[in-house]
Fold each of these.
Amino acid sequence: MGPRVTRRHVVQQILRGRSKEPVREQGIGRAPVNIALCKYWGKRDAELNLPRNSSLSVTLPGMEVEMRVEVSGEGRDEVVLEDNRLPQDEAAFQRVVEYLDLFRGAKGLRFRVESRSAVPPAAGLASSAAAFAALVRALDALFGWELTPRELSILARLGSGSACRSIFQGAVVWQAGRRRDGMDSFARPLNIVWPEFRMGLVLISTAEKAVGSRPGMNHTVETSPLYSRWPAVAEQDLQRMLAALEGRDMGALGGLAESNALCMHATMIAARPPLLYWEPKTVSAMKRVWAMRQEGRRVYFTIDAGPNLKLIYPVEEARVVREVFGEVREFAPLTESASCS
Amino acid sequence: MGPRVTRRHVVQQILRGRSKEPVREQGIGRAPVNIALCKYWGKRDAELNLPRNSSLSVTLPGMEVEMRVEVSGEGRDEVVLEDNRLPQDEAAFQRVVEYLDLFRGAKGLRFRVESRSAVPPAAGLASSAAAFAALVRALDALFGWELTPRELSILARLGSGSACRSIFQGAVVWQAGRRRDGMDSFARPLNIVWPEFRMGLVLISTAEKAVGSRPGMNHTVETSPLYSRWPAVAEQDLQRMLAALEGRDMGALGGLAESNALCMHATMIAARPPLLYWEPKTVSAMKRVWAMRQEGRRVYFTIDAGPNLKLIYPVEEARVVREVFGEVREFAPLTESASCS
């Protein structure tokens, strides 16, 4: 098997021969939120965030996080979210600091990280994937590494698995890879232009989850007797979704995305003790979507590890979606400008 | 593999040498509703109702169906439920008639079947298992066969799988068996006396289900990518539940029953298209149970292929169950008189 590969090994390998000193005062990076159509659910390596299955997402145009990084004059790390400095005992602070540990160099640099998000808190979107992708871009700018997108994707994955997808725009595949060091586990953009494709956010709740998606994933892998089927199901779903994307087949893609999300939730519901992210209103909204389909509407949903629905539909259904769900925050993730910037 | 075994073969084998003529005017049979703690979900033989996994249930004292059978003077079958004669084009009529086809003998007898149920329609309890068990008992009385309980259980299974459990009282195991003719697939009573054990019905809806449990089961077996894990999960759950029953361990039994039910629902949720029997209020009720457990209460639930919860708890929790859920219809299925009659 060989020795265990650590995050530090991976960073050393990627940054070999590159600058360990900042080349400018401040590095700035931006990255968008992504929503998976084929979900990432379960790790084969917890330290490297190596997944058990490949996944597919679309990014939400405009829903970006911006990160600014500079060397701290105060001799200790500072993390400032929307002008609020995080207390040192906060889990989010710890997670960022442990990530920064990978980039301090021989001098043991300390950093000031400032984050601004265009994602309204009321959007019900987890933005940690976008945050880590933006942080990697900011570090790349600060140190002048000029890494390739693939290298950025691998580094982003070390912070948050799905962050590797937020390095790109539009439809993005994260290939699981097989290597123990994860050097083959990164995202790539599909460059699919499909202007009619829409994603609409249905907000059920913005309350903080009782169980975060990371511990939820681990609990499911460890205790759900149905989980063992998931990786093969997801790989097959992904292949079919790629064909549906290629053929611009909304019925096939939407149906697969919905079934894939429900399969993921099914593995959680079967965990012991059970894990249910749905609220009563989540069920009402799902039933409303199914009723629309009974009436011939091409409207589908996906649900992440939370209570909110993300609707998937072609632009022709936008009016009826608004009629049924009221104002939904709507995105066109696969227009030419959104996909290929 | 040999030829396919039909229901007719099984009936011939069991009734060999027994009377094919009624020995009295009318046969009367009664049988109770049963609620599974380890669910029957999926068939290995659709005609013989042979299950893919063994299951465990308790019967609900007083929730009985009574069947009266006599030879019809009218030359055709009549099925009368609570004084209402079923139309010939109703599915329930067809199902009973096809079952009666197995018992007509050389004379091609036609029957009048009258059913009365002590199960209020508003209880949200499916009573077809109790109905077929009662019908078998009524036929046994009409023809004077004097079959053993095991033989009655096998014949009841031919009408409705879980009917084989309703031949007995109290805690009952249906062993899946392995034989192609199903002669080893029957129920047996465990004779567990546990006076503190309670089951409470939480009624969410009595509306007729959009998908019955029989087609729901078949759809799940055929399309759910998670189903293949179910039979092994259920067999293991059953062994653990038997140990928990033996040890009168409410926490273990309740937790296993709840997880087993959720695992069954998870296989449906992952079916394609998905199958969700829950209503929004089902989710609220589940969350209420989990909140009670957070407060140290030993209250658990099971859910059949429908929206209603059946709570499982020791008698000490009866008061707090009423406080949280209002009046629930409560049963003591494992008292001496309920288990061993």
Note: The two ends of chain B are 41 Å apart (CA to CA).
Amino acid sequence: MAAEVHVPGSREECLARDAADPLRDVVARFHKPPGIIYLDGNSLGAMPRGVAARLGDVVEREWGHDLITSWNKAGWFDLPVTLGDRIGALIGAAPGQTVVTDTTSINIYKCLHAALSLNPGRTVIVSEAQSFPTDLYMIEGVVATTGAQCLLWNRREAIESMLDDSVAAVLLSEVDYRTGALIDAEAVTRKVHEAGALMIWDLCHSAGVLDVALDRIGADFAVGCTYKYLNGGPGAPAFLYAAERHHEGARQPLTGWWGHARPFAFERDFAPASGIRKFLCGTQPILSLAGVAAGLDAMVGVAVSDLRRKSQALTGLFMAHVDALLGPAAEIATPREPDRRGSQVSLKFGEGYAVMQAMISKGVIGDFRAPDIMRFGFSPLYTTYTEVWDAAGILSECIESEPWREVRFTRRAAVT
Amino acid sequence: MAAEVHVPGSREECLARDAADPLRDVVARFHKPPGIIYLDGNSLGAMPRGVAARLGDVVEREWGHDLITSWNKAGWFDLPVTLGDRIGALIGAAPGQTVVTDTTSINIYKCLHAALSLNPGRTVIVSEAQSFPTDLYMIEGVVATTGAQCLLWNRREAIESMLDDSVAAVLLSEVDYRTGALIDAEAVTRKVHEAGALMIWDLCHSAGVLDVALDRIGADFAVGCTYKYLNGGPGAPAFLYAAERHHEGARQPLTGWWGHARPFAFERDFAPASGIRKFLCGTQPILSLAGVAAGLDAMVGVAVSDLRRKSQALTGLFMAHVDALLGPAAEIATPREPDRRGSQVSLKFGEGYAVMQAMISKGVIGDFRAPDIMRFGFSPLYTTYTEVWDAAGILSECIESEPWREVRFTRRAAVT
């Protein structure tokens, strides 16, 4: 997938690479606070410059002036599906299979119930102990109120070891949120299907940055958030993908009026909508959906393959420069092979929390995940090679200048 | 509750009443499109003038500049509880019992499950066929995945006729969304408790306009939306109230990470938060929550009792003037007694859809609910007596000028 590319060996080379970057004009679509190198777009994406104007229009004209007529005239009622299709285009989903709605957690709940309803007689949900915790918590919620059970896979084992004819569904994150390790979604989906189970992908750390191909690999369901690499704004509503072949049969219990076949007939009995809308529930937060629209607008004309290529180059550069500065003592938890990682680089470091605070005070923003992971996310839309070079330098400085380096690190002579 | 007040008998009297209105300065806090009389605030509240500035600040400074630090620094993470407490003050709930989160539909689902968990051995949920449909649909979702059953009450019968020791919970709307009829929440709650069941109130058409007293009447749970009389903006997140005495025992299956006791410890197993936060699930839409904050800001210094008094006066004026113009032929479906109605007036009229379209073309915006209900909502925050007078006149004109009047209405001579 990724061609071997030359890794810049100097700041000058990084500047040249930025000047030649096919995405260089896209960087300007985002607001970047002066003096900040923002490497936390895997937690909250940066603000597209167009968002304030768009929200102003939604508020002043659509809400303030046009009032309730905007449910139709401004397309508010259809936003979950129109935005869903735009995200679908980024994750390899043909139209009509993706909605933007609710939260990742709630969408996981819907998908788990849907998968159980499609696989009657099977009761086991397989997931991974290293999943982002809310995935596991939502499984617990399903387990507590149904006859389902949960088994946790350790990915050092083959996935097949978990799969028998009791397994209804497998829920996994394509990218490990701690280490950035990427799973082979196509191979796993195939094995899950061979065992007669359904595959639910959590794409929180994939959408907008990986070449996801849900239809092609035959995924059954997927969820993900829009506020990371899709830059939809803080807590922006999540997305849910359901393969068309499951639309008729799937049942999920969050059967609110937005999932009704005829919501404005105000009928007494629930009748599910026929397509992807059956995964909608209640009235959706339009202002936050406008943020999702602004985030997608900032990606117009950008090919996911270009994002993936730049993302691999940025993460590769960061690792190479950290290696050069800190040597083997820097314990990089992220796979070195470009095709086995997402768009982040993680370092395991016992004092990582303190180091991250020191970096933030010097203008480099990453984050820390307990117990010992420093995470750096690289959004290829707005991160430059030069920033990555500088960030590695500041990471090195922060580690070198602190007392714990004496015990934990052997400094390289050249750096002193 | 409502003192008998003189109903204005002329447009001049309405102008005088507006000039003397203790809420007259509050009207200016809202944007009202020129030439429009907006009587649909029971569907989507009007836009507070402060919202664009507030959202601009949230976007440009909190998101754009401060980025992830705003989760703490700007209080994003606590918004569900800080906004919840502000709404709590409007619905008679002491702090720590209300959150703003998700949708009314999803919050109903949580409350139903919580009530069932608190009442083991009881399996019946009682509701009303005339409920807003999503309430019934969410009950269906619970029924489909648990051992619960649903029984529908007809409010012409005594509620006691529905209550026995199989009933776990009763879910009712305080205000009927079609007719505006108000139920005696205190008396119903008492009877439900006498039967050992728990009471869940849907306050969608109550919050911000009725003197709700959840703690005093001993309600167990309540839900409601923020985009009607609370003016939080299109699809703004809903609220959920849970009486403190239930916090420890209640269980609900939407156990996402925002409901965890230690969300940022990223633990593998779910441990519910100890207070009202256990009713949170996933990451919340901050831009839409900022709309809720702006809506509440527009109510600062306003006493709910003043809102209720003006609301009763506005609805009374509308009915009186419609009566005067159209006579007994106008079939008003809303109770005449001020204490038995919410803040809307509904007319039953077979051709109501066409009449409403005609009114909208003349600048009076109400709405229509199938099969034959014309609804007019009166937000006392921004609706004037003069607008109500004029709206009744335009309603009369639209009915009088259309062909169906010949068959359906006997015009009063004075109006011709």
Note: Confidence is low (pLDDT under 50) at residues 406-416 of chain B.
